[in-house]
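A quick aside before the break. I want you to see a complete sequence-to-structure record at least once, exactly as it would be stored in a machine-readable document. Don't worry about memorizing anything.
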Amino acid sequence: MNLLKETMRILRAHRIAPKKRLGQNFLVDYDLLKRMVSYAELSLEDTVLEVGAGLGFLTEILAEECGHVIAVEVDPRLVNILKRRLSNRRNLSILKGDILKLEVPPFNKVVSTPPYSISSPLLFWLLARKFERAVLTFQKEFAERLVAPVNSRDYCRLTVATYYRSRVKVLDYVPRDRFWPTPEVDSLIIELMPREERPFKVEDESFFFKVVSFLFTQKNKKVRNGLIAFLRGRGVEKAEAVEIADSVPFHEKRVRELTPEDLGLVVNDLARRTRRVGLL
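That is the input. The structure line, written in tokens, reads:
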């Protein structure tokens, strides 16, 4: 099937122009869609979530390979097309709305080419839920941040948060011309496998991610300087902030030089010290 011609035919028939603000770039390479599904290792026992179902090409393949598909689409124009095109599929639920705001039934796998515009919030949304495996197509630059090595340009809070909650692997490369309309960047297909156990101990996850997020806003500075600014921003007197920051592990290193495990030690120590003196 020539998905490019079929995409243009369907959109023309319904007088629909893709909306850039919704990130509507349709993957029109059938072989790539089939590979995405094969990476997920589906069976009839699986319930698969698809975010940004679009015109339903991936949805159709998923419905043939798994027990049930939950297809989410925010654009009501495309929802109408999905319902018409896939009306004969009995193992399919189509949900209209924003995935970040919907009540979504339980699922155990995710296979999706979500809009680039929701990549980061969608990732955190997923990592807060239970599932077995996710196969996702993300913008290349975003995907590279998920697997970035320590002390690299792409190493960031997203790298740390993803590593803490899951194992990430790059599976495939998707040239930009496999989409229509053609986006400005290439993409990568990645696999997320949630961890059964965290790779290091964090005493207070909420506090950990607050500190990590702040530190990576100034990742080229020394840890002590980042922590002083963090503490001062929360009302701690300068002298006390300096004393605490100079006492934590790795305080002379640059933020970007710390592994996620190192950051765990830093924040755990910071939490103990501030708690001991009644701060924060």
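Two observations worth writing down. The chain has a mean pLDDT of 95. The two ends are 60 Å apart (CA to CA). We'll return to this after the break.
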